[in-house]
Amino acid sequence: MYPNDGFRELERQECLRLLARTPVGRIVHTRHALPAVLPVNFGLDHDDAVLLRTSADSELVFAIDGTVVAFEADEVDAVTHSGWSVVVTGSAAVVTDPAEHERLIRTGPSSWAPSLDEVFVRIEPELVTGRELIGGRTMYGVDLSS
C-alpha cells in the first residue's frame, strides 16, 4: 500500500464542474510589482472561461487587462477535513466587442458591487489544475488522521 497524503489531483473537466457551482473566488495578479489577491464573484463563459463583471474604471481592470493572471476558488469543510481547490491560469482581457458585451449582460454574472459603467473581464483558461482533500490520511495502511 502506498502513502496517501490525503490529496487527489483533479482532471480539467472536474475542475470546471466544481468552479461552475461556486460563486466566489480569488483573482491573483501583480499590483505595484507585488502579488495581490482579491476576492471576486464570477461565472463561467462557454463552460471554461472565468468571467468577472466589474466597474470599467476599477483598479482591478487596469491591473489585469492584457496580463496573465491566476484565479483560484475552493470549498473546504473544516469538520470533515475535506474540500477542493482549483486554479485557472490564463490571459485576462476586457470584453470590447459590443455584441459580446450585450450577450454577457444577459447571460454573464451579476456584480455584487454594481456600478453604472460595468465591463466584463474574461480569463481564458490556459492551465486548469485542482486538488481534492479527501479527509484523513493513511500511510502503509495506518490511519494518521487522529
Give an account of the 3D structure.
This protein is of the alpha+beta class and 146 residues long. It has a single domain (7-143), classed as Electron Transport, Fmn-binding Protein, Chain A (Pnp Oxidase, Chain A, Roll), CATH 2.30.110. Helices cover 17% and strands 49% of the residues. The chain is built from 3 helices and 11 strands; from the N terminus they run βαββββαββαββββ. The protein has helices at residues 12-20, 59-64, 98-107; strands spanning 7-9, 24-31, 34-41, 43-45, 49-55, 67-77, 82-94, 118-123, 127-134, 138-139, 142-143. The strands form 2 sheets. Strands 1, 2, 3, 4, 5, 6, 7, 8 and 9 form a 9-stranded antiparallel β-sheet that branches. A two-stranded antiparallel ribbon has the order 10-11. A hairpin with a 2-residue loop joins strand 2 and strand 3 (34-41). The radius of gyration is 18 Å and the shape is globular. The relative contact order is 0.26.
Rg, Cα atoms, Å: 18 Å
Largest sheet: 9 strands, antiparallel
How far is it from the N-terminal to the C-terminal residue, by CA? 19 Å
> What is the β-strand count?
11
- Proportion of residues in helical segments: 10-25%
In terms of per-residue confidence, which ranges show pLDDT below 50 for 5 or more consecutive residues? none
Mean pLDDT: 89
Organism: Streptomyces sp. SID12501
Pfam families: Pyridox_ox_2
Protein name: Pyridoxamine 5'-phosphate oxidase family protein
InterPro entries: Pyridox_Oxase-rel, Split_barrel_FMN-bd
